[in-house]
């Protein structure tokens, strides 16, 4: 696997204290799927009537576990549920064998926890193209079941890590009609050290009571503005999975109009999404790209992602070079509408270019000083309409090449 | 500008001997647009009745020179024509000023050569966002006009270089009904050292007589299979320009059915396109990606470009890692149709994966040995239909980061 890369310079100082979410309990185990001497399986058990919503990779080559989750999501059930995740082996591109492995895991988990099989959701992350030794996991189910405890979410965050340089967690508490509901989530994702995939896995839990269709529509809408607006290197995993489970244990019912709950969920999702960018391979800069004045929100996002994914923009940022010409280039190639002579570009508060030409007051020294910051904001205004988007990315450095051009042996 | 990078390890051993194309003459001059001590302007003068076809960047932020060429292309004229190209300054993102500079250049060239202004085509390549000091070029027009000579195409190839590590030329001779027509072309393009743009400029000349609409339809079709099938880093210049001029001096008329001529033109275009990839920044491997079995040719190209542009695939190639999992990932994210369980992947003659899983006879040692070659072939079969495409790219190395993350100062 090569050496573990050093802790990202953009990592948060500590793993946060996450509140206990009533209705969910966690356990982890060392199943030895691939790694030894560390937990590599996490099980989350959810009380009966928990609703579960999700979002998944749109890859045409998605893994068997993703296909299985997609089939099961959207139902309403009074039965309990479970989420089982292993690290070390992604069970991706394993042909028919992959489907059988998912079946073996969900069947055994259902039996152990006495819940219906269609209420068991699994994810796998790690090497691809190798058969998942699923029996190593099912052999641990009795142990996992016994160990289930409400407070072990931080251990779960660690068990699902592959090449992450830090565990990722976030939470918030929302007050609704004087009563509190809690939201807590964990994530993994950073990029890949050969032969891992850059799988992003996210599990969020709340004690609110939310009907499944309401929860699903919130998750779908928020996913579009959070996880779907981050990019490390434009590459997409075959296994990306986001699951949000509402246990209802607080007794507080959330409806479509619960703006406060939706805002809390958005904060947790955005925080976890940002943490994934901060753990981007080789990242030394965290970059927010805000696009305004586009012909539509969709076109604003296309421009934002074209800038965020441009190797030339990302290397310029790594080199602390205020190279606005590369931003113009990325906008031009994006395919969305732009008018060269209406464009303006800011780095932070510095107006770099305006109406298609460099700002006459632009100071290269001032811009160069700004680019030395670890957190950067690039603002592009297209001058065409009311479309806006914000996307987040990191720079492209020698560290990325070191990690990804490593020999597999 | 930083130090000139060393000669690409993928460079051809020599600049080829290019034949004289009757009806076109060349001159170069040191105008000092930005560089000193080297020619930075080339002028090509074309005899009357020369037909000219072209293809241009589709960037929404394309430069004034490109817009001017696009406006002029497609006409038929009995007048002479000219192509004027400068290196050092791209005259891109220079607002209204850029349009004025193009007007000044075309007006002065037309006057000097006594041809209509709408028969003068210009290109500029180099730094962007800085006003083009066009008078330095027009001051040299009398000198250029006097120096025009039929044999100076190789000097022209050198005058248009910016960060290229070698000049690019190619030619062929086609026999039609026992008579010979000649095709010779030059190109520049490699990538960009800050603050240059990765402009690709290509000028091809033939002594065949070809009606403009016939020439244009050939160029459009061939461009799709040559220059539009190469990628260094997925980024697109605001100034990319391809012009093909047919002087008619051989007296041999080419029609739509002249398969031999079209094949000759294809060879020259493909050779120049490959030379641009071979001069990709930091490139150490030349990679051909052949896609078959896609739902359509268009979808095959989408898959091919997704593989060719994937930073994860490109770093794996740099690391000589036969990482077929990253190819599966790139296919999955491309947006074109794929069925995981129908996919097969070859590196050269080595069958790596078949019908969605690793080939049981696959030897990682054999694949690792293959990946040490400087020229690599990756073949993906989708197993869906008859769509095919071939695209070419290079690897992503520390050299790319060195060149592009350099400080601008």
Automatic annotation (TrEMBL), chains A, B:
Substrate binds at residues 162, 188, 199, 281, 404, 409. Its EC number is 2.3.1.35, 2.3.1.1. Its main location: cytoplasm. The active site is at 199 (nucleophile). It comes from the Bacteria. It catalyses: L-glutamate + acetyl-CoA = N-acetyl-L-glutamate + CoA + H(+); N(2)-acetyl-L-ornithine + L-glutamate = N-acetyl-L-glutamate + L-ornithine. One of its GO terms (molecular function) is L-glutamate N-acetyltransferase activity, acting on acetyl-L-ornithine as donor. Belongs to the ArgJ family. GO terms for biological process: L-arginine biosynthetic process; ornithine biosynthetic process. Signal peptide: none annotated. Keywords: Acyltransferase, Amino-acid biosynthesis, Arginine biosynthesis, Autocatalytic cleavage, Cytoplasm, Multifunctional enzyme, Transferase. This is Arginine biosynthesis bifunctional protein ArgJ. Pathway: Amino-acid biosynthesis; L-arginine biosynthesis; L-ornithine and N-acetyl-L-glutamate from L-glutamate and N(2)-acetyl-L-ornithine (cyclic): step 1/1; Amino-acid biosynthesis; L-arginine biosynthesis; N(2)-acetyl-L-ornithine from L-glutamate: step 1/4. The record marks 125-126 as: Involved in the stabilization of negative charge on the oxyanion by the formation of the oxyanion hole. It is found in: Cytoplasm. The record marks 198-199 as: Cleavage. InterPro entries: Arg_biosynth_ArgJ (IPR002813), ArgJ-like_dom_sf (IPR016117), ArgJ_beta_C (IPR042195).
């Amino acid at each position: 696997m090569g050496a573990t890369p050093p802790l990202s310079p953009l990592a948060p100082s500590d793993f946060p204290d996450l509140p206990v979410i009533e209705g969910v309990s966690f356990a982890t185990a060392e199943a030895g799927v691939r790694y030894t001497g560390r937990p590599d399986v996490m099980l989350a058990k959810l009380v009966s009537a928990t609703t579960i919503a999700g979002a998944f990779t749109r890859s045409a080559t998605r893994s068997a576990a993703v296909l299985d989750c997609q089939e099961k999501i959207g139902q309403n059930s009074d039965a309990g549920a479970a989420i089982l995740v292993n690290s070390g082996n992604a069970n991706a591109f394993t042909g028919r064998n992959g489907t059988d492995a998912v079946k073996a895991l969900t069947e055994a988990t259902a039996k152990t926890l006495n819940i219906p099989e269609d209420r068991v959701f699994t994810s796998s992350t790690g090497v691809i193209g190798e058969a998942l030794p699923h029996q190593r996991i099912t052999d641990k189910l009795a142990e996992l079941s016994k160990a289930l405890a409400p407070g072990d979410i931080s251990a779960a965050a660690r068990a699902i890590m592959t090449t992450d340089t830090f565990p990722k967690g976030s939470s918030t508490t929302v007050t609704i009609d004087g009563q509190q509901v809690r939201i807590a989530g964990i994530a993994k994702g950073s990029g890949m050290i050969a032969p891992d995939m850059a799988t992003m896995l996210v599990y969020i839990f709340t004690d609110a009571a939310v009907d499944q269709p309401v929860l699903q529509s919130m998750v779908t809408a928020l996913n579009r503005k959070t996880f779907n607006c981050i990019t490390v290197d434009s590459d997409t995993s075959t296994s990306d999975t986001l699951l949000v489970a509402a246990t209802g244990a607080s007794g507080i019912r959330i409806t479509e109009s619960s703006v406060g709950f939706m805002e809390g969920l958005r904060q947790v999702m955005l925080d976890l999404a940002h943490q994934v960018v901060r753990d981007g391979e080789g990242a030394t800069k965290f970059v927010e790209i805000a696009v305004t004045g586009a012909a539509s929100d969709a076109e604003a996002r296309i421009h934002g992602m074209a800038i965020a994914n441009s190797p030339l923009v990302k290397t310029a940022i790594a080199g602390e070079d205020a190279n606005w010409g590369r931003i113009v280039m990325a906008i031009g190639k994006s395919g969305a509408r732009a008018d060269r002579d209406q464009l303006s570009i800011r780095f932070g508060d510095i107006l770099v270019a305006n109406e298609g030409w460099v700002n006459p007051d632009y100071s290269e020294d001032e811009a160069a000083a700004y680019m030395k910051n670890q957190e950067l904001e690039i603002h592009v205004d297209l001058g065409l309409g009311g479309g806006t988007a914000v996307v987040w990315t990191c720079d492209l450095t020698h560290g990325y090449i070191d990690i990804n051009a490593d020999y597999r042996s």
